[in-house]
Specification:
This protein is an alpha/beta fold. The chain is built from 10 helices and 19 strands. A 7-stranded parallel beta sheet has the order 3-4-5-6-7-8-9. Strands 1, 11, 14, 17, 18 and 19 form a 6-stranded mixed beta sheet that branches.
Length: about 350
């Protein structure tokens, strides 16, 4: 739990829940599972979480950028760390020196890696996302021109699902079939297909290595159904001041909220500089000891205000819950018009991470 005396926002992270989620995802996949720890483990603190997963048996970790991978190498000296965005030209040497595995998404990246000496790499084939990845024609060219792969040991062929959280979306079956055709070109290569939600699409989406990310941290991989994952984090922030205001008085910038009755206002030490969405002004709530505190007024840079009228036990120094039991990240995302991924990854360095 967070240290006594913390005066700012704190994300208390249950590392044991994350490890349990990883084990459950591997069990459901029926094969090996990696861990996606990009964006500082989705805002939860990769330097603490990745070693715990490694101790539990996770052997492969994915990040997005070379800089993330280099930071992770400092705490995971032996693990296989893959860089989803691949290295740009000047980064190839650093990637090789740290023993990182590039995820190569173009013939140009493949050529850079080959010319630098080759070695282990993953290949990313695009099957419908149209972001990163080798197109069908490029994959066919690799099959027909083995020299393009000279000195490169392809340890994994992967793709990324477009709509795996929506099982009925026809894109899932189309991508599975397209990936199967690409796999047939290189039958000796190991493969990776399922992300967090893809694991729940069934045996047709199984492969040699699953790549769960959001589900590790308790984000529901099956929207519309009960969350099969354990909650992993609780975001709290302190009450800095309580004040009583009269009917008609306003709260916050530009007087976007006015009291309709005598109201007790709790000013809480979190704002958009901490990553708490400014768009939440006059929207949603926090919790204290089971009591709902509606957010009133605008979210400002360092402070957010809540209606704490009639909430027993709340005092200056009390901590209110912004994400956690009773107020899931998905709920906050609904209020903010975004997804739970953004709610968690946008939490900035002023939010202390405390692991247990």
């Amino acid at each position: 739990m967070h240290a006594q005396g913390e005066t700012g926002a704190v994300l208390d992270v249950d590392t044991g829940a994350i490890v349990a989620n990883w084990r459950e995802l591997a069990r459901r996949h029926g094969a090996a599972a990696a861990a996606v720890v990009k964006a500082d483990a989705y805002g939860h603190g990769a330097a603490a979480i990745a070693p715990a997963l490694a101790r539990a048996g996770c052997a492969t970790f994915f990040v997005a950028q070379v800089a993330e991978a280099l930071a992770l190498r400092a705490v995971l000296p032996e693990a296989r760390i893959a860089v989803l965005n691949g290295p740009a030209g000047p980064q190839v040497a650093a990637c090789r020196a740290a023993g990182l595995v590039p995820v190569l998404s173009s013939l140009g990246q493949l050529a850079l890696w080959r010319e630098a000496g080759g070695g282990i790499a993953f290949l990313h084939a695009d099957t419908g996302m149209n972001r990163l990845g080798l197109a069908d024609a490029e994959m066919a060219r690799l099959a027909g021109e083995p020299a393009l792969l000279a000195g490169v040991e392809v340890a994994l062929l992967m793709t990324h699902l477009v709509a795996s959280e929506e099982p009925a979306d026809p894109a899932n079956a189309l991508q599975r079939e397209r990936f199967a055709r690409l796999r047939a070109l290189f039958p000796a290569w190991k493969t990776s297909l399922a992300n967090s939600s893809g694991i729940f699409l069934g045996a047709d989406f199984a492969s040699d290595l699953a790549r769960p990310g959001a589900a590790l941290y308790g984000i529901n991989p099956t929207p519309g159904h009960a969350n099969p994952m354990r909650a992993a984090a609780r975001l709290t922030a302190p009450v800095l001041q309580l004040r009583d205001i009269r009917p008609g008085e306003s709260v916050g910038y530009n007087a976007t909220w006015r009291a309709g009755r005598h109201t007790r206002i709790a000013t809480v030490g979190i704002g958009y500089a901490d990553g708490w969405p400014r768009v939440l002004g006059n929207t949603g709530h926090a919790l204290f000891d089971g009591h709902v505190l509606p957010l009133v007024g605008r979210v400002s840079m360092d402070l957010t205000t809540y209606d704490a009228t009639g909430v027993p036990g709340l005092a200056e120094g009390s901590r209110v819950t912004l994400v956690g039991e009773g107020v899931a990240a998905e709920t906050v995302a609904l209020w903010a018009g975004t997804n739970a991924y953004e709610v968690l990854t946008r939490l900035g360095p002023r939010v202390a991470r405390c692991h247990r």
